[in-house]
Amino acid sequence: SDWVGVKLSSLKQSLIDSENTLEAFRKQHDLLDISGITTLETEKIKRLKEEIAVATSLKIKADSLLQVLKQFGTDDVTLLESLPVIASNISYQQAKKLLLDAQRSFSEIKQVYGPKHPLYVTAAAELQLVQTNLQQQVAKIVEGVGKESQAAQINLQVLGQELDNTKLAYSSLLALANEYRQLKREVDTNRQLYDGFLSRQREMDITQDFSNQVARFTDYAIAPNHAAKPNKKLIVLLAFVGSFGMAMMLVLLLDALNDTLKNREDVESILGLRALGFLPKIKGKLSELEFTKAF
Q1: End-to-end CA distance of the chain
Q2: I need a labelling partner for 244 at 20 to 30 A (CA). Which of 79, 181, 230, 233 fits?
């Protein structure tokens, strides 16, 4: 009992020390729910990877389009019209419409007036201005594609840096989580040991006032009236059943081994002949009357 009390005090102090260490660690690193924090960081890493995949796709698309535009150049507008990024641009569509109107107007004036006529000169200048505007719109689109490529590159760098920082933070959190779980396991172990010894001490306190008896009688022995073994009735019954079974088996065996003709049905079935009559087997000598009755 004294040993249990001393051990209980030691375990209680170990439990208090481990709980204080765990609480100090939690306050030092400002931890509330370590599992929730690691889950958030995991989701953030997953989201950043998805954004990087999208940004990479946009960068590849912008670089490919920029490469095509550089190969075609900005002078040949007719060749650039086949590209969706040019044809779908609203500014380009408006400039193209102005160019078509200017070309139609210049064609009409050209059929009526000469090159030196003011209307001719004005229409030609307007046509030249519209063509220049169209080329400027194409140049702006190409410049916009280049800026999109640069922006995508910058976005990729920013996302990559953020992903690296998040991974470093996640690694630090994992290290903190492992240390926290180790301290938590130590607290749980000390609490289990303390509870076990506390329960043991309480049991000892309850039972220490009772004197333990070495032995006690529950039922007194009674002398039997007859022998328990051998069971003569059972032996006789088993012998009778066994003898009867052996007799039945012997009768069946003798009957099976008997191949003589016993009656008229055996004669007719085995020999295939009709019986004309039977001579009874007579044991000993018969009187004349008994001999006559036999036939």
Answers
A1: 111
A2: 230
How many angstroms separate the CA atoms of 166 and 48, rounded?
9
Tokens of 260: 């003589």
Per-residue pLDDT of the chain (295 residues; tens, 9 = 90+): 567 677 778 888 888 888 888 888 878 877 666 666 667 777 888 888 888 888 888 787 777 777 766 666 655 666 566 666 666 777 777 877 887 788 788 788 878 777 788 888 888 888 788 877 777 777 777 777 777 777 888 888 888 888 888 888 778 777 878 888 888 889 889 888 888 878 877 777 666 655 555 566 667 777 777 777 777 888 889 999 999 999 999 999 988 887 777 777 777 787 777 777 766 666 666 666 665 665 5
Nearest CA among 1, 4, 6, 12 for reference residue 190: 12
Place of tokens 């303390």: 194
Pull the structure tokens for residue 213: 């008896």
CA–CA separation, 250 vs 226, rounded Å? 38
- Residue 190 CB: number of other CB atoms within 10 A? 19
Give the position of tokens 């954004």.
51
Asked whether the beta carbons of 99 and 136 are under 8 A apart, the reply is no
> From CA 87, how far away is CA 102, in angstroms rounded?
19
pTM confidence score: 0.39
4-13 LR contacts (CB < 8 Å, sep 24+): 4/197, 4/200, 4/201, 4/204, 5/201, 7/197, 8/194, 8/197, 8/198, 8/201, 11/190, 11/193, 11/194, 11/197, 12/194
